[in-house]
User: What shape does this take?
Amino acid sequence: MAGRRSLGRRFRWLWGAYAVSTAGTWLAFDAFALIAVLALDAGPTQVSLLAAVGPAVGAAVSVPLGPWVEVRRKRPVMMATDLVRCAVLLSIPAAFALGRLSFGQLVLVSVAVAAADITFNAAAGAFLKDLLPRQDLLVANGRFEATTWTASMVGPPLGGAAIGLFGPVATVVADAASYLLSAFGIRAIGDAEKQRPRPEPTVTRAGDLLEGWRHILADPELRPLFFNTLLVNSLIMAASPPLLILMVDDLHFAPWQYALAFAVPCTGGLLGSRLAPRLVARHGRHRVLLSAGVLRVCWPIGLAFTGPGTPGLALVMLVEFGLITCCAVYNPVLATHRLDRTPTGRVTRTLSAWSATSKATTATMTALWGVLAARTGPRTAIALAGVLLLATPLLLPRRDPAPGAGPEGPPRRWSRTAADRHGPLGRSGTEAAAPPPRTGRARAQTAPGTSSVTPFSSEAGSVPYGRVMISRPWPAGSRK
Assistant: This one.
């Protein structure tokens, strides 16, 4: 099977580094909010401010870093951002031990981590494109996606237990250690970059800062996917705090029931990530993107009907399972397509622009939905988000693009190629013929961002309701 094919020693080191970093991030799920509440007696306003300001300011700080990273070798940048995140996170338990921890420090650390996340994801996307041939990217992104959902399933319960045993900053120490181990893993990859970047410009021009957005908006395939992803991600995440209030405060679900409602459905992430390469091989990339993109937004409206007791808990699990499964199919396919549509010399700036815009949009929508929930009630806010999500498929591309020149090399249609139909191995079981050579290097979310947003797609797709985090995994996708 294509999904079980070995992608080489260097990819295994990269995947291992991603796995340990993602595990640390999900172990520290909602760590900053918990520290603010348990150690600093922060109220709802401060917690919401922490959730919104950190990612938004971090996104703004990361914008000028995109052109800077573009002209540098990506592996040292990835190691440096891992070490930066390790250092700033360790400042929290150090200040806590000395009795000097403050809310302002939490905000500053969240800004630094968010900026480092975006920078790392952008560099990692370019590095992956350089590391693997085009036909292996979907398999690689599927493995990152499966890793993300596995970590999201087991990390938060273990993190909650660690906080109960060792105190509120225990998971932050574990998260910092995971970034250190990730840096060691990336170093073990060796010098895998095939081509040195162009000479560094002496001055970063204003046009360089906008190049990522310029490429996204000029590409007829990426532009609608970009706006669709922004709206879907931000609406899903904006409804997360109201759902927490509805379940815990209004319906009186116990905290363990709330955690269980989002841990069990993450099995859908494993299922979806395994299905993605097979669905693309059978139906083609465009059809999978369109179908999964539509299906993933049909589920959240059901959360507005959550009731008390076991039936309500079962409804949340069912909705989350459907949402997560569809997102896990969509995320790696979008991440692969985004890399395929982006020239090598623009990958870092494009992923940085995508991730920064997603974080800023999500932070803004989260703040707006907080005000809406305060005025109309959490159930109404959840319902409105669900209704608006149903309109987002209008932004998805409806048809395969007409033949034309692609961003690199010969034109590439969304219709199935030999690799899409039969996987990285051809019909006979031998490796399918690679596409004609590109100029430059060959690649999550990301991000990942991929999400999550997600594998280096941390911002490519969505993350489930309730997964509100300050520090996301490489991805992305999403998610983180």
Q: What stands out?
A: The CA atoms of residues 325 and 354 lie 23 Å apart. The first helix runs from residue 9 to 27.
